[in-house]
Amino acid sequence: MVQRTAVISGAGTGIGAACAQALSSSCDRLVLVGRRLEKLQEVAATLPGNVQVHVGSCDLSDPQSVQDLADWARAELGSVDVIVSNAGSVQPPLGDSLQTMADAWASTYLANTISAVLLIESLAPLLPRPGGRIVIIGSAAARSGNGSPAYAAAKGALQTYAISLMRRLGPEGITANVVAPGYTDGTELVAGRISPERKERLLRGIATGRPAAAAEIAHIVASLAAREASFINGETVTVDGGPVVSG
């Protein structure tokens, strides 16, 4: 008998794939969502055989695509215990005009903020009351301002959104929290995107002197998604190894 179900977006690589592994020990049914079906299938093949796994291609920035996912979940699953909103990306500007700047900010907000809102709002009615868990992957950049300003702002908006979810759904026994990773190895956000010089600068700013592993981020996600994690709500947990402050 299925006891617990988790939906994980951006589950084909990096932190999302690590979250699937971490949640496979506490959830009997996992739904892996992303744009690339083949990547999701690769992750599904690595999960324990006693876990029921569904994979689905979904454009989380497209309201109709998300609605189709929610309709499927309602018909096939009936309920969802955990929502992990992990999908996101950096949208680099392609020029230096105000128009290209506006386009880059809009596409970044769509990919990182609106995509999370659409997923969560569409599935929230399926969460148990009490006991539902929402975990949003933000970024330590929302606090540090490192990297793309548009990305940092879009991830910062998720922290405010989690507080709004807490105020609205908390009285029903649902928690909503943000996990904000720092520089994390093995993610498409950094793979091939940063120079050796920038990587060295980033590492100098981390007290532990190394990047996080995706599994370390997923461990915190799984902790916040646990049934027992019923009294932490509306919080942002920064997982960045500790910032080094010069002075």
Report what the structure shows.
- With 247 residues, this protein is an alpha/beta fold.
- The protein has a single domain, classed as NAD(P)-binding Rossmann-like Domain (Rossmann fold, 3-Layer(aba) Sandwich), CATH 3.40.50.
- It is built from 8 helices and 7 strands.
- It has helices at 14-23, 37-44, 63-76, 98-123, 141-144, 149-169, 196-204, 214-225; strands spanning 5-9, 29-34, 52-57, 82-85, 133-137, 175-181, 236-239.
- Strand 2 (29-34), helix 2 (37-44) and strand 3 form a beta-alpha-beta unit.
- Helix 1 packs across helix 8 (214-225) and helix 3 (63-76) runs parallel beside helix 4 (98-123).
- The longest helix is centred in the middle third of the chain and has 26 residues, at 98-123.
- It starts with a strand and ends in an 8-residue tail after the last strand.
- The mean pLDDT is 93.
Q: Helix and strand layout, with pairings?
A:
Blueprint: E1 5-9, H1 14-23, E2 29-34, H2 37-44, E3 52-57, H3 63-76, E4 82-85, H4 98-123, E5 133-137, H5 141-144, H6 149-169, E6 175-181, H7 196-204, H8 214-225, E7 236-239
Parallel strand pairs: 1-2, 1-4, 2-3, 4-5, 5-6, 6-7
